[in-house]
Amino acid sequence: AVSRQANDRWQEAISLRRLAAVYNYQRRYDEALSLTETALRLHQALGDRASESYALGNLGEILCHLRRPDDAERYLRQALEIAETIGTALAIDTAVTQMIGYLYLPQARYEAGLTFLNEQMTKPHGQQDPLVRLLCLKHQARLLIHLGAFHEALALNIVKQRLAQASYLGAIQIHNLSCLAFIQGELGAFGPAQAAADQIEALLDAAP
Prior knowledge:
The chain has 208 residues and is an all-alpha fold.
């Protein structure tokens, strides 16, 4: 009975977050904020750390939309701290993506974002998990593009591609090649851009 009650509360929290996501999309931010705060309390009561991290990140996003950057940053950093204790690539990438998307990019804090990502890659999860490192490199390349540093972004994407190949992560190889093709096209290097596109096609053809 206790387990069923806990499951019901977990389902309630998830339903609240889904409805909050709808309100967020509709720009009904105050309503989304209230629902997400309720969902967060439920996750905390259940001791569900992964869902707590996601809810905190959702709060950071909503507060960003409400133009409350200090409050947004506080929640986003709490989400990241919990994700780091969980230690999975999925949890960390979700929190890092939210930090970049709702803190550094909206405020045009590109250099600070690069520093943040460098710090992530020096932590144990960044050194031990190639997927976490790849995801951080992906965000760094994005920030460099916003800075107009296309040559640096190109070099970083080459590093990403080599790491993806070494890790046998086909989907990430395709993503990285897409980035390479875009950046090389922006630089007017149409031959290398086409070569990257051809590699994408070959990977897709070889996919099971």
